[in-house]
């Protein structure tokens, strides 16, 4: 897919801290105290307020904060035909804590229906609100590779073999449902879609790489497969649809899951994935150095995630600027940009900082964009 390179603009990776009213409504719905329509009304109000806050903060591209989701990834998986929400029995193991144990497994052949998948309706609402302010609306999706990783995670893998005797048919089905979903979002007005993808961020960690590969599968084979799944879903899309990707090493309640630089996956991820821009986590030593950025080909751009969402402490502005120019040794400054390292609430629990600190972080991003890139910002 050939994409027309566009101005990135001031944008956040995706999720925002859930306001208290929304948290309370979700808990009330879970306890049967309010209806689904009641919850939707609260979500609508919260998202409308959030868009106004983003516009006031100067963002050119807005999201719905992922306010209707429990997880950054699983909610999208549960919307596909042939997929069920389950309790896995154990959560994802992060460095210091374990997540909730929700997961997704197959209960039939994969399919996509734009009339039933919730994300299409959700995006239409966001787009209508964004249009009132004259700003672009971005939708965030977990990547096809991330979907694959969940469906073959541990005991989930046995379900795959019940419905797909051939692995190639399973891989093709993942690509197809994602392709269909992306086209449905395009038809709903989406022109910027971001694929959130922790699979690459896990492969760079020797522990996680071995865990994800499993018995008889090499990390090298997984890199090829992830690339095939993602690029396959992105084939033959409209030229005015911008597809970006965001890569991190886990973001749950201010905790992280993996560590390792991009060197191991640079050839595939940075050299061959068919996206316009890479939003890359770079807020700690766990992400390694900038040398892999030299692998980014053509006119693709990298958005440096130098400012963390994991703590409320505000970074030193000059330190961040110095790191931007350090990265410019490997990729020209006109192909670099700045944003947060990740979302503020990849799950509804949210990271450990306040809403005020959240907006202070974004204000710092805006200041640095203006100082380093001037009129382009």
TrEMBL record:
Its EC number is 2.1.1.14. Keywords: Methyltransferase, Transferase. Residues 13-71, 170-353 form the Cobalamin-independent methionine synthase MetE C-terminal/archaeal domain. GO terms for molecular function: 5-methyltetrahydropteroyltriglutamate-homocysteine S-methyltransferase activity. GO terms for biological process: methylation. Coiled coil: none annotated. InterPro entries: Met_Synth_C/arc, UROD/MetE-like_sf. The keyword Methyltransferase applies. SUPFAM superfamilies: UROD/MetE-like. It is an enzyme of class 2 (transferase). PANTHER family: METHIONINE SYNTHASE (PTHR43844:SF1). This is 5-methyltetrahydropteroyltriglutamate--homocysteine S-methyltransferase.
């Amino acid at each position: 897919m050939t994409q027309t390179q566009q101005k990135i603009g001031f944008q956040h990776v995706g999720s925002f801290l859930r306001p208290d009213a929304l948290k309370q409504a979700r808990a009330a719905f879970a306890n049967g105290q309010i209806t689904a329509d009641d919850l939707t009304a609260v979500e609508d109000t919260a998202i409308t307020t959030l868009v106004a806050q983003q516009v006031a903060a100067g963002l050119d591209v807005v999201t719905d904060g992922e306010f209707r989701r429990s997880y950054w990834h699983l909610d999208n998986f549960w919307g596909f035909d042939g997929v069920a929400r389950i309790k896995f029995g154990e959560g994802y193991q992060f460095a210091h804590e374990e997540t909730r144990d929700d997961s997704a497994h197959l209960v039939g052949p994969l399919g996509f229906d734009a009339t039933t998948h919730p994300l299409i309706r959700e995006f239409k609402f966001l787009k209508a609100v964004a249009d009132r302010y004259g700003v672009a609306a971005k939708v965030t999706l977990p990547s096809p590779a991330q979907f694959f990783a969940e469906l073959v995670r541990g005991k989930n893998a046995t379900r795959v073999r019940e419905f797909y005797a051939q692995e190639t048919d399973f891989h093709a089905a993942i690509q197809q449902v994602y392709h269909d979903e992306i086209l449905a979002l395009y038809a709903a007005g989406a022109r910027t879609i971001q694929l959130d993808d922790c699979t690459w961020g896990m492969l760079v960690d020797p522990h996680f790489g071995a865990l994800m590969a499993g018995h008889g599968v090499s990390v090298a084979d997984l890199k090829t497969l992830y690339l095939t799944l993602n690029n396959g879903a992105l084939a033959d899309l409209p030229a005015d649809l911008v597809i970006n990707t965001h890569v991190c090493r886990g973001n749950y309640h201010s905790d992280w899951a993996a560590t390792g630089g991009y060197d191991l996956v640079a050839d595939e991820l940075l050299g061959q994935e068919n996206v316009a821009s890479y939003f890359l986590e770079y807020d700690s030593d766990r992400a390694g150095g900038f040398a892999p950025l030299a692998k980014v080909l053509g006119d693709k751009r990298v958005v440096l995630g130098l400012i963390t969402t994991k703590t409320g402490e505000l970074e030193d502005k000059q330190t961040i600027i110095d790191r931007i120019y350090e990265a410019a040794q490997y990729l020209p400054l006109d192909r670099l940009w700045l944003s947060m390292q990740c979302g503020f609430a990849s799950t509804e629990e949210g990271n450990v900082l306040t809403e005020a600190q959240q907006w202070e972080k974004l204000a710092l991003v805006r200041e640095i964009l203006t100082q380093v890139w001037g009129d382009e910002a």
